[in-house]
Every structure is written in structure tokens, then in C-alpha cells.
Amino acid sequence: MHAYRTHTCGELRKSHVGETVKLSGWLHRRRDHGGVMFIDLRDHYGLTQVVFNPGSPGFGTVERLRAESVITLEGKVVARDESLVNPNLTTGEIEVVAGEVSVQSEAAELPLPVFGEPEYPEDIRLKHRYLDLRRETLHKNMVLRSQVIASLRRRMIEQGFTEYQTPILTASSPEGARDFLVPSRLHPGEFYALPQAPQQFKQLLMVSGFDRYFQIAPCFRDEDARADRSPGEFYQLDIEMSFVTQEDVFSAIEPVMAGVFSEFADWEGKGRTVPEGAFPRIPYAEAMAKYGSDKPDLRNPIELADVSEFFEDDSKTGFGIFAKIIAGGGRVIAIPAPKAAAEKSRKFFDELDKWAKKEMQAPGLGYARLKEADGGGVDSQDPVLKNFEPALLATLLEKLGLSAGDGIFF
């Protein structure tokens, strides 16, 4: 029999009942049920429930061990009673009745728990990263990352790309951020720069005739963290193509990206779906006009609307501020806020006005809350729309698709 294991902790099934097996892993959890002791033994592949009966050779050994001790045990696979089957485990139909146990590494008291994954301060998690990475969620995230990269690599190769590795120690090549510098031992006072991206190297490959390059490339930028990027370093799917048009680039990359997202959409049963068909193409001007961004999140149904035409004549609106802005070459943009007036307080609107003044250095954020008018229809008592002619207001709200209970920001 193998020195450490005949099976992994995620491998045993009902078909193995009656076999004598050897398992190695971490003592994930221990439970004492009236003298009979149960443990969950964990390795990279999953969990197996192990039973220690009183008087068994390993009972006393395991009883004194702390969680996360590493052990090797031998035992017999038995079927669980129907009422005790755990459908949440791949090994949930069986358990192992243990005999001999060998301790490979005895754990001290843990600075943070692995079982249960409670929230813990980040500094403790990072200091004890080897424990943090044993948590189920992080372990699965690491596996997911590896599988996504493998999928990208396979799909790029199927598209006719060849993978090349480019240098890490190089000369400075500014790309919009500060370089990380590495001092040279052989040339005192001189420094290498870590690449912000493989830009120059991949272009060298193209002029050298390699045609289609890709790399899962490490990039180093001495910049602050952003919502979609870790500070300091990140990895990107880096590509370059020769003798191609924009359409060729779209045709090569769309099936790669769509395929990866489709492949992993239902990871861990999350139930996500990916829209079918070609990627939507939005011209820059249209994207800025509708979303105020050249990389809009299309899951957000809210679209901006240019409503300058409604405010040109202040005799019909009673709001001269916007008329002056339009006369000076500016525009008035409306941001619809469905149900905001019905579900949010006046404070919500005022807080956004303060935010705009602070974050955008704007003089203010115009807004209006819509309500049922006394004589029928919809009106607003907020300054922007308070004195609008009813017919003009009705046309404005029809364009924006808004009604009583909604709000508008300008």
C-alpha cells in the first residue's frame, strides 16, 4: 500500500464500500457523539467523513489533535444510512471507519479558523496566508483562476495564436504609470524597469514575422489600487496580430471571451447566464451620450438623455439657469431615476447634490421628484420642473419614460 494514500479525500464513492483505503489530509473538523468521534478529513480534492470508534488504535491520537493537523489514516469504507447521506458532499454516501493513524504534522493553536470562514481582519489573513488559502472559498477561487487561464490558453491556440514569454527585466517604457525599478548588481547606480505591459516586445515579435502572439502577461505598474485592478501587479491576456483589420481582431477575440464566460458562468452553481450572439458594438459618441462612459455596464438599464430642447425657452419652463447654459453652448442631460421619488427621501436627493459638488466640483445637481398632480397628470414641486408648462412636461416625461413616483437628475 502507498505510504500516504490510496485515494484522495474527494474520490471515494459507494462503489468503494468494503475496500480498505489510506487517506492523508488536514483535520478539518471534529465532532464527538457520545464516545464515537467523527472527523472531516480535507485535502485539495474534497472532504471525507471518518469515524473513530472507542478503543480503535487512532482514537486517542486524534482526540488530542487540534484542527489543521495533518494525518494519515487507514480504514474501511462503509455506506452511510440513507438518513445520514450528505447530498452536499461528493463523498456524502460513504464514511471511513478508521484504524491506525499517523501524525504527519501537529498543528498549534490557530491564529484564525479555517472551518466556517468567518470574517477576519485583512492584516491577520495576509500574515497567515497559508491558513487563509486553506479556506474553501479562496481555495476554489485559486482553482477557478487556473482553469480560466487554461481555457484562455486553449482557445487562443485554437484561434491560431502562439504563446511567447517576454522579458521581465527591461528598460523603462512609460505607459501612463510609474515604473517599478530593480537595481542592477553588476552595474551599480543603474536600474532595470519591470514592464508595465509587453508592448514593445510584442511589436518586435510582429516585425520579426511571428504573426499571431499571445501571452498571459504579468504587468507591473507603480500606481494606486483601482476597482478592477490590484495595486502593483496584475495579469492580462496580451495579444498582437499582423496583417489584420479591426474586424479580424473582433472575429478572433469575441469567441475566446464569450467562450470563457460561457464555460464558467455556472461555476459552483451560481446560475449565471451569458447572452448569445455577437457582442454589441456601440460607437464612442453613442456610448458617451447614452451612458457617460466608453466602457458602460449594459446590465444597468438607465440611459442618459439629452433634454436641452425642453429648456431652451425659459418662458415655458420658468427655469432660466439651464436656458443660459444652453445659450452658451452647453447641454442639459437627464438621468432618469425610476421609483426614486416613491422609495427615497428628500435627503437622498440632497446627499447626491452634495456628492456632485464635492466629487465633480459641480455647482450643484439639479433634480426633480415626480408626483400625481391635483388635477390629474404629473407634476413636480422641485425648482427645475415646478413652473414647466404641463404639455411640455408631459412630452419630456414621455421621452424619458417616467411617471409619478419617479425622479430625475440633471
What's this model, at a glance?
The protein is α+β, with helices and mostly antiparallel strands. It has 13 helices and 16 strands. It has helices spanning 59-64, 122-127, 129-132, 136-158, 199-207, 246-264, 284-291, 314-317, 320-327, 340-343, 346-359, 383-386, 390-400; strands spanning 20-33, 36-43, 46-52, 70-79, 94-105, 162-163, 181-183, 191-193, 212-221, 232-241, 305-306, 333-337, 367-369, 371-372, 378-379, 407-409.
Write up what this structure looks like.
The chain is α+β, with helices and mostly antiparallel strands and 410 residues long. The chain is 29% helix and 23% strand. The chain contains 13 helices and 16 strands. The chain has a 5-stranded mixed β-barrel. The longest helix is centred in the middle third of the chain and has 23 residues, at 136-158. It is extended and about 95 Å long. The mean pLDDT is 93.
Topology:
Blueprint: E1 20-33, E2 36-43, E3 46-52, H1 59-64, E4 70-79, E5 94-105, H2 122-127, H3 129-132, H4 136-158, E6 162-163, E7 181-183, E8 191-193, H5 199-207, E9 212-221, E10 232-241, H6 246-264, H7 284-291, E11 305-306, H8 314-317, H9 320-327, E12 333-337, H10 340-343, H11 346-359, E13 367-369, E14 371-372, E15 378-379, H12 383-386, H13 390-400, E16 407-409
Parallel strand pairs: 3-5, 6-9
Antiparallel strand pairs: 1-2, 1-4, 2-3, 4-5, 7-8, 9-10, 11-12, 12-16, 13-16, 14-15
Helix pairs in contact: 4-6
Alpha-carbon distance between the two ends: 75 Å
Cα gyration radius (Å): 31 Å
The count of helical stretches stands at 13
Query: Which outline best applies?
Result: extended
| Major sheet size, sense and barrel closure | 5 strands, mixed, barrel
Which structural class fits the helix and strand makeup? alpha+beta
| Oligomeric category | single chain
Low-confidence stretches: none
What is the typical, i.e. mean, pLDDT? 93
Strand order of the largest sheet: 1-2-3-5-4
Order of helices and strands: EEEHEEHHHEEEHEEHHEHHEHHEEEHHE
